[in-house]
Amino acid sequence: MPRPSASRLTRSTPGASARTDSPGTSGPKPGRIARRAPWLCAGLALLLAPLQSHAESKAKFPADADQAKAVRYAALDYKQCIETLEQRKIAFSIEKEAAGVLIPVRLLGPLHGVTWRTDFGAEQRRTTPYEVLDCRLLLAIDDFSAILEQHDIEEVRIFSFWRPPPKKWPKDKIAKRHPGGLAADVRLFKKRPPKSDEEAPKGDDSKQKEQGKRTSPKKKSPRKHKKTRHKGSAENELSVLEDFGGKIGGKACGKGATKPRPNTAKARELRELVCEAASQRLFNSILTPHFDKHHFNHFHLEVTAGVKWFIVD
Description:
Elements: H1 6-12, H2 30-36, H3 38-48, H4 69-74, H5 78-87, E1 92-94, E2 104-107, E3 115-117, H6 122-125, E4 132-134, H7 135-150, E5 153-160, E6 183-191, H8 204-215, E7 237-239, H9 240-243, H10 265-279, E8 285-287, E9 299-302, E10 311-312
Helix pairs in contact: 2-3, 5-7
């Protein structure tokens, strides 16, 4: 029996190679691949397409982005940023090592009377990596603190600033977001407590109280009021988890903003804080519980180097 040719083998044998020994032929033709496996071309197209995060897909690109504080801060180098902190008389220390962070610092005091801190105790806060941040983010939150001061905020509780990257992270590689110390996750704002009656100067009222104590029967005690369960945060707190009242897909600021549910004073004030920061363009990204399920309990405030877009969601 005569031996079959290579061309007949290719046509009749399932899975046989389409390669021939003719000059210039190094593999199967693109058209043949497309006919045999159309899904392969679609897969390659997805792999080669530029990657874009969910957040970046909602970005706005204003024509005057170069004038925005977030963009100007992100463009600062080490010397410029440290000098700016010193000019503002901000209490800080320089961190010697913080992988992924370009200008690592630690905040040592309040900004415009507002303390930024984690939930750790005083001793742990001196060394925790979560209170390390990039100098450029510190400038942005200093400006934000001026807004908070107008709302009688005295303390901001955060989950973290810097989140150290993996141990194998290259020493000279600068990171973004939390691994770069350029983002803050804010969970709670504490307001200054109102002045109590005890702080008021004592006059004749104190004498009347003293007389009341003497004349009241010893056996009878003052009536105790039943404690009612308070829904939401404490009276002097604005909690993103308890008070924001938003849902995924909502809009916090601008035309068409969705109303909080329930529509409380605390929910409205939390939106005011977000929208005032957004209007001043202090951060490139401001993500709220409207954004996705991962932000249900905090605001994500981020300065992003090398971009001219802004996201408020």
